[in-house]
Structure formats: C-alpha cells, structure tokens
Amino acid sequence: MANRHSHQQTPLLDLGERCFAPVEPADFPQAILRYRNDRAAAEIGLDGLSSETWIQHFARFEPFADNLPKPLALAYHGHQFRVYNPDIGDGRGFTFAQFRDARGRLMDLGTKGSGRTPYSRTGDGRLTLKGAIREILATELLEALGVPTSRTLSVIETGEQLARDDEPSPARSAVLVRLSHSHVRFGSFQRLAFLSDTEGLRVLLAYAVRNFYPHLSEDDAPGFLRSVAQNMAKMTARLMTSGFVHGVLNTDNMNVTGECFDYGPWRFLPTLKPGLTAAYFDVSGLYAYARQAEAIYWNLSALADALRTVADLDALKAALDQFPAYYGAAFAEALMHRLGVRGAGDKSDQDFVTGFFGFLNETQVPFERAFFDLFGGRAGLQKRERSPHARAYRDAAIIEQLDGYEPVGADRLADPFFEGAPETLLYDEVEALWSELEPGENWAALEEKIARIRRMGAAYRLEAAL
Fold this sequence. Notes:
The chain is an alpha+beta fold. Helices cover 40% and strands 14% of the residues.
C-alpha cells in the first residue's frame, strides 16, 4: 500500500548488515486487534488503513510499498545494571518500516513480541498481553504529560500461551508495534566499539547525525554527544516532573534521539518517594526515582567511551560535562511547564525547584494531585481551594513563590477536566484494569481509561520538549 508520506529510500539500509540481521516474523495462530492508535498513525499517514490491512501489516508484517523489504533485528550490546553484556540485541523485536512524519522526521515502526531472532538466546521472542497493556498505558499517560516518548501504535493478541516466571502462567500473548523517532541505541555504538569496528562506528555516527541532528557535520562525534545529552536532559526532566520511574535504564534502553521507550517494569509515584524503584530485581535501588538523572548521565558516559576511537577524548569529555547544566535548566523548565507558569530563567527558578520538591516530600500530598491542584499558579486559586489538600497549600511558603510566577495559557483552566480530579496510573490501578480483562474481557474499562487520559492531555496541553 502506498502512503502519503512514503519515500523511496529507507535510510536504515544505509547501515548495512553489520548493524542488523534480516529476520522472519513469527507465524501467529490468531490476530485479534486489541488496540489501534489512529492518532499516532495519522502522523505517518496510516490512520486510513482498513482493519484487515492493519492486521496484515501489524500482525503478519507484510511489508509496506517502497519500504523495508524484510524486518531487521538490530544488533547492540549494553550495560545492564552497569554490567556489560555483549549477548543482547533485538531478541523479540525488529524494525520493519520507516516513514517521514508531517514534520519531516524519520520515524521507525518497531515491534515487541514478534518472534525469535538471532539475538533471542534462550528467549521465546514473545510478549505477554499484560505487558503490552502496561506499555499502552505508560505511553498514553507520558504523552499526555508532555514527556518525549515512543507511542504504542498497535497491540494484537496472538492466541499463544506463554510460560512466565513473573506472571501467572500460562499467559496470553500479544505483539506490539511502537512508533519512535529512532531505535538506534547507545548500545548500538557500544557494540561496534567492542568489536573494534571503527569504520562501522563512523557509518553509524553519520547515519545518526544525518537523520536526527542534521545541523552537525556527519563526523562531529562531540557535537553529536552534546546534542544527545541535551535531549536526554530534557527527557529526564520531563520524566521526573511526571513522577515516572523507569525500571531498566540500561544503555540498551537509551535511544539517540532522547525519547523514553521500552516499558517493562515501571511505576508512577503515589507521593514523592525518592527511593521508589519499579523493578523487583533492582535490589540496590540503582534506578530509583531520585537516581534516574545519575543513571542517564552514567549512560551518556558509556556512549562517550564508545565514541573514543572516532573523536578527540577531551572534546568528548567537554561535551559530556555539559549534562549537569543542561539537566538543571531543563528541570526548572519542565517544572514550570507542568505547573502552567512562566519562570524567570534565573537562580530563583532553581530555588523554586528545591522548595517545591521539599514541599512534596514534607507534606506527602499525592504527586499527581499536587500538580493538578497547583496548575496555573495564582490563576488556579479556586481549583486549589476545592482540593482535599487545600490546607497544606495555604500553610506553605513555596505556594506564595509559585503565585509570583506568571500563568501561561490560563484559558486552559476553563476546561471541564479541572472541575474533577487528575488521572493517575498507580500500581494498584493498573492491576485492577488488568483484572477487568483477565478473565472478564471487559475491554471497555481500558478504553475508558485511555479516553480519560487523553482528555487530561487535551486539557493540560503539555507539548513534548523535543
């Protein structure tokens, strides 16, 4: 099928087979469409697909016209909980199409649960339906909160029964398709450095610069690292001000465009809990909520290390050293953005960040409730006064400072959403949604939750940072 944004060239093929392996998708016994994101599909001209054609492309993986002729499982290594692992790669996914969106950006269609690949090791290449539902919910809420994130485009139940240690077995299976600005990971560079493939590093760097940072020259590794660090700082700041905890911030889960993606274990904060982790196996708290910026800075240092053979070491270090300043500025901007006010752009904003999170920590007002109640600053005073936590706000010095900032887009407060309550996705809520589906098959509950999240996003109008 032709597409209004289709193009004759698929840039991923420029990398050659040193960076991927052509693969065959699994042959699933069933294809039951459970989720279709036409809003995301419209960005690449796929919202008009019939249900039959949708399933052909997103469950059977028939190639699109003028696109990748076969799915490609990407090769990469990575530090997993800071232990280097050379035995990973796309073990249950692949990239099977590339399109340009309306902004001209290169967009990848990638999968999760699409079958075994040369990188599967002992895995079955499958995804549980519950895991797919969790990724739908995470991406929907993060998008609504203005976080740069991949989008879940499609989930199709596949009719297989899976054995899993962390879910009741047998578990239902699904195949997920995500839309992302890039599936090139930090670990893609690490693998080529590990293999001493300097030419491969130059080819991958040129691909990344050409397609994601075209303002740079294709051999400018320090400039590339600096640009990635800027985008990662913005993404991390938005994650933190959304109260999100990503359970596996490994280098193979970092992409070079600065989008958050690959949602296995995750949590949203109930209240400010700096030590909250999302993965039961994160026993040391390495990826706890308050340590996420530290983790991403460490991952950027691993990317810098991988680029050493194609760039001056001092120039790479200088680029890497910019991350703390980028992150500090991005955090203040993200907090103001979430609260619907305009900061002064000086040290007072940094003081406000410290004071605001100190207030959340001291009072333990529910995290998302606080942002809902305080959105709009002084323009949202009536909403704040209606809150069950109104007393905590009246007695807090930080609220006076908030009211000193100028509200931005105060007309947003007229939305009927602000007469109700915020949408949240706490652990027990997600489990309750799943219990509606298993075994009750109440898909309406999930659909209603997604609709409410989107209504929240329409009210807040929190555009992504990238």
